[in-house]
Amino acid sequence: MSALTPEEVLRYQRHLTLPQFGEKAQLQLKESRVLVIGAGGLGCPALQYMAAAGVGRLGIVDFDRVDVSNLQRQILFTEDDVGKPKAEVAAERLKRMNPCIEVEAMNVRFGADNALEILSRYDLIVDGSDNFPTRYLVNDACVLAGKPLIYGAIHTFQGQVSVFNFQGGPTYRCLFAQPPDPGDAPNCAEIGVLGVLPGIIGTAQACEAIKVITGVGEPLSGKLLMWDALSMKQQVIRFSRDPDLPPITELREIEFACPGPDLPDGAEIETGAFRSLIEGGSPVQVLDVRLGWERAMAKIDSVHIPLGDLRSGRADPGQAGLDPQVPTVVYCRSGQRSLNARQVLADRYSFSQVFSLKGGIKEWARQFDPSLRVY
Description:
CATH topology of the largest domain: Rossmann fold
CATH superfamily of the largest domain: NAD(P)-binding Rossmann-like Domain
Number of strands: 13
Number of domains: 2
Distance between the termini: 50 Å
Largest sheet: 8 strands, mixed
CATH class of the largest domain: Alpha Beta
């Protein structure tokens, strides 16, 4: 094991003075190799704190590019980075933060075809992904490769952290044996997340990674930490390895499409047909089921009832001026919520001719009105 350089001694002196940590733990960090999958809301804080702590080699896998909507929570990026590859921008920032470490940027999709080869170069894996297919793939790859996994997940105001596949402990599948139904999966809906939440959960992941690397403290193996931002309450759920799980012998990617309701003929209307309908003077009414802030950014002339209000009954389409007997076109951002709203209008309010605008306002803007501000 190599010694710390004078520069590293100065940089990490607060670690070196910790009685439970000291030079031995710092050297273990220096020799460690950690792979972070996803440089998003969770990956950004996890990467920053591990880089600052002195993890010797960090790998970043992310094939996405920076979008302005990321900036509310993905704190490694600025407006100047919009459109640039996340992995490359993150690596450059981390090297500036701590020139004593090495950073490898991989602007590739993490898949069954490359997972084991990528994992083979690292000792520990931190999962910062935001979808179920990747989480199961990462878990299964870690099991096959014999690598410990630091798990984190967020949803609206709540987050989870755990340590899987550590010293014979439980894996992700011991806790969640099978993926949920795609229609029930949070990542399939257009939902939000409190900006500080991934900062908290991602930082907790970095803490668990440091504990696993150094042997300091008790990692969350066999324990799921659940944290609520609204109440500032947390609880720890204990779980064990499931001896009845079938062994993992190969990597397979889960097909996880996010379907809308079953579509009868004519459930969707193409943007071209919608344009012809409104320009032809035919009787038609239009309903926007997005949130208020979305409507303020861009809209088509329409009645406005957010999907949540329509589902819960807080808003009545009749009182909003909509006639169930008049042909109705429902739109949202990309066409998913409008499909759900169409079903509600047909089932609960007996709308006889109701259609979802395929592709939503994004497709409408692309084809017919580029002046609209898409998001």
